[in-house]
Amino acid sequence: MEIKRNRYLNKLISRMNNGLIKVITGIRRSGKSYLLFNLFYDYLINSGVSAENVITIPLDDEDYARYCNPHELYEYIKNEIEGKSGKLYVFIDEAQYAITKEEMKNRDKPIRLYGVLNGLLRKKNIDVYITGSNSKFLSSDILTEFRGRGDEIHILPLSFSEYYPASDKDKYDAWQDYLYYGGLPHILAETNGEMKSTYLSRLHKEIYLKDICERYNLRDEQGMEALMKVVASAVGSLTNAKKISDTFVSNGNKTISVPTISGYLTYLTESFMVEKAERYDIKGRKYISTPSKYYYTDLGLRNALLNFRQFEETHLMENAIYNELIYRGYNVDVGVVETRENVDNKKIYKQLEVDFVANQGSKRYYIQSAYALPNKEKIEQEQASLVRIPDSFKKIMVVNGNPPVWRNENGITIMGIFEFLLNERSLEL
Fold first, then answer.
1. Which of 123, 153, 225, 348 counts the highest number of beta carbons within 10 A?
2. Is-above-0.90 flag for pTM?
3. Cβ distance 368 to 397 under 8 Å?
4. How far, in Å, CA of 35 to CA of 373, rounded?
5. Which residues are 335's β-sheet partners?
């Protein structure tokens, strides 16, 4: 089973030989190694690059354990490139294994691996690619360290357009599986629901939660997990540290301070587990600092956190739309439109929400996730914010299923979720 990841492959191809270290980031099991060691490697070979000129070093492989020592790693690469002509390509997988725990915990301690990478960068005939998924590589620390000499390619779990062709199911069944089990590539290899659920639950406990706690030296693992569950339950809802703290209190859980919760939310976003969507005042053209929305990078991990007991398709569809916009390279905010209404001869100010304001260069789209539009009243409710936006950028409502694309009397485009997800030009229709 080959999963095509052409969007990311093309990004790597376009960055070849640009004089920068290509840093492939993303949560574990999202397909970073497959992208580099399979898809990109095959591209190089098919383009005429000799296999001898591609040096692959999977540091999580026991056969390469000695090269977790940066000195040994550098000596190995030097020996591998000696006497070879032409362009050389160095792939280092799971590079965080070459960083010690002491280096990870102490930010003042120089990280020897960075010296190795910078040394390779100075050699004009070497093109360097690395992947990393935990500790220092969970965040953008490495890019900061390189001060402009690193080029990040951030990889997400499978989009639905990548998942569906590889699923061997019709799009309706594939969609339900995608909402329930998410888009981590290995999910497609598991043969039944029990195995998929067990896989996701194990990943959360043994990898993701552990990595975050180690990265930030957290002793309260239970507190972090409790926070992750609260955020998972609030997908599509406005929240902030104060609201989450109040939730803990109302649920009878132990109290976690607001500053601690703020820190935990930052750790989750830096770890790529969740994405934060800030509120943007469309008329006022300014950001509103709080509250915000948080969306899970992978729906399966979100559902596993909640023991697969909260399957609200409306919220999950909204999350999937957000992830798709991020996948396509848009900057995404939550829109706010302020209106004034006369009620009993009094002016009442209301804030209406636009689910997503998607920006990319000069392009902007306003998008509403509207699971169903069964009647005129519901249509008016869902479009209330869109019709009050005082500019001419395109306005879209995405509904469940696969109805034909149409445009209503207010100029709003209405399309089904399959059209939106599977047609890469859907926003232009």
1. 153
2. yes
3. yes
4. 40
5. 280, 354
Q: Give dist(CA 298, CA 126) in Å, integer.
A: 35
Instruction: Say which DSSP state 205 is in.
Output: I
Q: Where are the beta strands (DSSP E) in 155-282?
A: 274-281
Q: Find the farthest-apart pair of alpha carbons in the chain and give their distance in angstroms, rounded.
A: 86
Closest CA to 53 of 24, 7, 16: 16
Asked if residues 294 and 177 have their Cβ atoms less than 8 Å apart, the reply is no
Nearest to 159 by CA among 11, 292, 28, 298: 298
Cα–Cα distance measured from residue 117 to residue 131, given in angstroms and rounded to the nearest whole number: 12
Length of the chain: 429
User: How far is Cα 367 from Cα 386, in angstroms, rounded to an integer?
Assistant: 8
Q: For residue 186, give both structure tokens.
A: 């290995």
Tokens matching residue 231: 């955020």
Domain architecture of the chain: domains with CATH: 6-154 (3.40.50.12060), 157-429 (no CATH)
Name the one residue in this structure whose structure tokens are 């848009």: 330
Whether the ω angle into residue 291 lies within 30 degrees of 0, i.e. cis, is: yes
* Nearest residue to 84 (alpha-carbon basis) of 43, 118, 52, 58: 52
| pLDDT tens-place values along the chain, 429 residues long | 679 999 999 999 999 999 999 989 888 899 999 999 999 999 999 999 999 999 999 998 999 999 999 999 999 999 999 999 999 999 999 888 888 877 766 767 778 888 899 899 888 899 999 998 754 454 455 656 666 677 889 999 999 999 999 999 999 999 999 999 999 999 999 989 999 999 999 999 888 998 888 878 888 899 999 999 999 999 989 999 999 988 888 877 667 889 999 999 998 988 889 999 999 999 999 999 889 999 999 999 999 999 999 899 999 999 999 999 999 999 999 999 998 877 777 888 889 999 999 999 999 999 999 999 999 999 999 999 999 999 999 999 999 999 999 999 999 999 999 999 999 999 999
